[in-house]
Amino acid sequence: MKIALIAGSNRRNATSTKLLQYMEGVLRGRGIATTLIDLFETPLPMYSPDAEVLDGHTSAMKRAVAEADAVILGTPEYHGSISGALKNALDFMGAGEFSGKPVLSVSSSGGAVGVSSLTQLQAMVRNMHGINSPEWLSLGGDARQFETDGAPADAAIRQRVERTLDSLVGLAALLRPHAGAVSK
Fold first, then answer.
1. What domains, with CATH codes, occur in the chain?
2. Fewer CB within 10 A of the end CB, N or C, for the chain?
3. pLDDT category of residue 110 using cuts at 50, 70 and 90
């Protein structure tokens, strides 16, 4: 099984990126192949439908998502919406990358929770013909603390991440049986 993760912040040390890095480690620990696209580390040019040639970062992102059995989209919440960096990345893609794939939406917000950004992400996933995971994950306020090893500081958050990933991996196995069995 392959899972692509897109960390949609263009901020150094963003908690949404830390959360996706932790999730990637959990998935790799389960023997799942992952590709993390960090939009801070590998920024993309501004989307234009008139662009005739894609740069290397954009081509690599599109390929990773197209080859994945499932996708995790992570974003901070800005003004009740997803980050501009993630919206720009998604504009480069569509049904060719997302059709029939389970997609988990994840947010980390300075406020209480990132429900507005998660709701908008799920609408975008539907428009790209992806299948929204029945779970989503939102960290808000004090829940956005991480240990030096990258794990969420709160044990309940770590358990929630595990359950959310269980749900996504299970859905991916049902929808894409060629991906093979996954062991815990």
1. 2-179 (3.40.50.360)
2. C
3. low
Phi and psi based region of residue 105 (left: phi greater than 0; alpha: psi -120 to 50; beta: remaining): beta
Q: How does DSSP assign 66-109, residue by residue?
A: HH-SEEEEEEE-BTTB--HHHHHHHHT--HHHHTT-EEEEEEEE
Closest CA to 139 of 115, 166, 103: 115
pTM over 0.90: yes
Cβ–Cβ < 8 Å for 3, 69: yes
Q: What is the dihedral of CA 38, 42, 46, 51, to 10 degrees?
A: -120
Name beta bridge partners: 72. 5, 104
